[in-house]
Amino acid sequence: MIRPGAGEPADEARLRRYLLALVERRAAPVHVAVAFNAVYFGFDTDAAGYAGGPLDIGDFPSVALGDEMEALPVGAMINVRTGGDLLPAEIVYKEGAHEALGVEGDIPGWLSGAPAGAQGPNQFDGTKATSLRERLVFDADAFGPGLAASGARLHRLSHRGTIDAYGSLVVNSLYERSGDGLPESDLDDTSYYLRYLMTRGRGQLDSSLAPMPLPLMLPPGATSQDKEAGLRNLVNVVRRALASLPGIRLWGEYAFTRASMADRLADGGSLGRDALETLARSVARGAAPIASRGAAVRRLPVYTALGPALCSLPEAARLMRGTRYPSALLHANVVLMDYVRREADEKTGLLPTGVRVALDDRWQGGGVWRAEHVGDDSAWDVLRGASEEPAGRGWAECRERQAPGVPVVEPEPAAPYPVMPWPDEPDLGEPVLVHEGPGRLEWQQPLRARQLESGYLPMPLAVTTGQGTTQPPDRALLDGPVLRPSPDIVFRLEHDGHPPSVQRVRMDEEGRLVGLQWPSTCFPGILLDLAWQRGSRTVQARTTALLRPRTVDGESIEHRYDQRVRTRDGAWQRPPDDTSLGRTRWLVMTAVRRFGLLDVVGRAMLARELLASALPLVMTDAPEDPTAELVGAAVVELLAAGALTRLQGSRGDDGRPHHPTRLGERIVELLCYTPQVVEDRPRGHGETEGGTSPVRAKAVHHVPGFLRYIGHLGYEASPEQRRLFRQDFLKFGLVGSPELPPGYTYVRPHQRGC
User: Fold this and answer.
1) Cβ atoms of 329 and 366 closer than 8 Å
2) Which residues contact 691 (CB under 8 A, 6 or more apart)?
3) Beta-carbon count within 10 A of 651 CB
4) DSSP, res 740
5) What is the pTM of this model?
6) Phi, psi (deg, nearest 5) at residue 669
7) CB within 10 Å: which end of the chain, N or C, has fewer?
């Protein structure tokens, strides 16, 4: 034990080595209070528990789901009330779980940063004890294998209602006002734990069985104030040592290894890098201005709680169960913070879209983030935008609502959706600016199916018009501020696994590179990293190989890709049996992927009652329209095979389906497509004699029919293509004119790949 004021290098080095082993060994991120427990009560990193320590588990408070009780801090030892044997555990994480938190992370602004006595946007009573709804995550393995709960036992407790579906305890915690008149709920987690140890946990703190009890560290006759000061000194020693550890990253007062963060970023699953980065972009996108009657309409600030947002993702109940909940949540907060620091301008704090994103509340819902489209005159946000300290703007602005300021224009109500909307998000597949230096722009975008087939690639506005650029006008003019339309543009593509290719193409008036020849192994959704040097006429692009190649729905994929674009633009494999039922199964799957609501991991959900309206809009070479009986049989087979699953959703008055369900809307059944991903062996296995991995052949995928614009080349469609378009137009009962528009030709459905 390091005594207060001790500064021996050997003692400090020993403490750091122990804490590093502790963080690596514990299943959950280690809070300062939990680290203090480990040092003070003797957590054995080899035995993985407080084996034979000074703790009497019979004295721990008993807790179960839904209890109303005196608040417990992070670090408190508890007994999960099972109705049978004792289940001792240590609270390793907690967060606010207010009833107003939406199931997808939406949260009213007033709740972000609100004090404990807040009951609403204009309701606050700080004069009495407060009850807060909290989620407590506990470690049931903290007392070693002999007392640890099995997975089967925890599952039974969840089924019985002792813990929730995520293996947590959601309780109503009562906070009193302290002797100095301050509400206990306003204390940070570590300070509240210190107060707990000096009051209800005093018996554990003074135990003579501790490796070095606090009373023995103090001189005889020490007062209660001396003990509290000594305890605070001890905790500060542990806090400083924890912050100095190599290979450790902190979020607030929680520590986790950088190796665990790297594993998360290398994961291609539902809570891996792509999912978290997509979630980060969606947080910022929610506040971007929208167009209304030719003018940009500013939206109100948008608040997102990451805990519920992560829980709404597929497989979250499995991947975020128990101590994995805080791990996933803290990693998501770090990814979002890194995204803001990487993408935002250093001077203004603005993302390329003009949106500023900042942490607003660390506690409620696992972390509330505020996104707002602002002007350059908001200097306060410039200082706080990329800070890990929460700003608390939600509650502050709620209290200052009557103060004079620039009015925020509310967006006009959206027009009602038609019976069968095309739900393709406006920004799906759009370029995302990654870096803007004094002479170089870098961005990333996935390839859409229409870009692959028509041989073009849209350039971002920062390249073609200078919109969003932060370079001063004089410097921008010297460096060549934009890439202008030209018949002589060089496009250099480095496609991983293939020799680099150089093509001379042209850029049209719409800011698109046209005349591109994409490699046959490129597929809808493949991610391109692009760069352009100001003043040059060369655009560089490259693809990136996955660390672990994967098979998605039977399709071999070796390169990074956008899961949402692949769902929308890719096609379900053609059935091996060319029967009416087989073709109908293919039609149903394609309709769900084309018209279903997309989430951040590429899952698509279509209301079953809209399926009949969607099928005629799927342009294919099917010889006949499927009957209702065939469609029903196809759905039954797809559900039985697991290719589709059922979810409960709702539909609003505008006809738009929603998931999860929304209060007051009609409940509907959703057919859900989830990409089936199988991780293959890492690269390097099965190498050829030359020492390089062979490039696997790209699986064949089906491309539906579409219109291609050829007017810019001075061409018109041939009579044969006009005839084929009229034929398919009548076959599928499409709406509009059966004649091809001027300047367009018709490309029939076909296969792509090798």
Assistant:
1) yes
2) none
3) 20
4) P
5) 0.63
6) -90, 130
7) C
